[in-house]
Amino acid sequence: MLSDRSKTVSNSASGEAAKAVVRRNTEEVQGKGNFAVFDELFADGYVDHTPQPGGTPDKPGTRGLYQALREAFPDFHAVIHWQTVDGEIVTTFKTYYGTHLGTFLGVAPTGRKIHFESVDAMRVHNGRITDHWGVGNLLSLMQQLGAWPAAGPHPRHTPNCGR
């Protein structure tokens, strides 16, 4: 039987391995467009529990999203700010960066530099990504592309509001 210390070391090692899988996806697939690594990292039964508009909640849908991002933002890359592990779930907070040189979500290329934050939770089982849940700040992205107007001041913060 493993001692508590051995279990902690084992759990720590498996957590670090899971974080490395998610980092490889962020850096090699999303950041470099290496789709051979995508096929290596994502399980065939993968499920995206928060697919993007018009996407499908499966491996081909996520691959299509990543390819669309790489086409629209050829220099697309992320800076990972932090990662945590809880069991098989790796949660990552990151900021994506890129230059808008291709059509994205119906917006023609603008040449603008963009950045937006994202939080992803990915289940890593036996070294492969099996599930994804995530929230990306697409409102900020679309505002930077000029597709949606920037928000004005909130009425509660406007001088003399309601007087």
According to CATH, what is the topology? Nuclear Transport Factor 2, Chain: A
Cα shape: globular
The biggest beta sheet reads: 5 strands, mixed
What is the helix content? Answer: 25-40%
Structural class: alpha+beta
What is the rounded distance between the termini?
A: 72 Å
What is the C-alpha radius of gyration, as a whole number of Å? 19 Å
Unreliable runs, pLDDT <50, ≥5 residues?
A: 2-10
Strand content: 25-35%
**How many domains in all?**
1
Count of DSSP H/I helices:
4
Strand adjacency order, main sheet? 1-5-4-3-2
CATH architecture: Roll
The CATH class, by name, is Alpha Beta
Order of helices and strands: HHEHEEEEH
Mean pLDDT across every amino acid position: 89
Concise synopsis of the structure shown:
The protein is of the alpha+beta class.
Question: Your description of this structure?
Answer:
With 163 residues, the chain is of the alpha+beta class. The protein has a single domain (4-149), classed as Nuclear Transport Factor 2, Chain: A (Roll), CATH 3.10.450. It is built from four helices and five strands; from the N terminus they run ααβαββββα. It has helices at residues 4-30, 35-41, 59-72, 138-144, and strands at 42-48, 77-86, 89-99, 113-125, 128-136. A five-stranded mixed beta sheet has the order 1-5-4-3-2. Strand 4 (113-125) and strand 5 form a beta hairpin. Helix 1 (4-30) packs antiparallel against helix 2.
